[in-house]
Amino acid sequence: MLRVEHIGVAVKSLENSNNLFSKLFGEDHYKEESVEGEQVRTSFFKIGETKIELLESTGPDSAIGKFIEKRGEGIHHIAYEVSNIVSEVERLKNEGFIILNEEPKKGADNKLVCFLHPKSTNGILVELCQEINASFD
Ligand code: ZN
Question: With contact defined as beta carbons under 8 Å apart, do 92 and 116 qualify?
Answer without folding.
Answer: yes
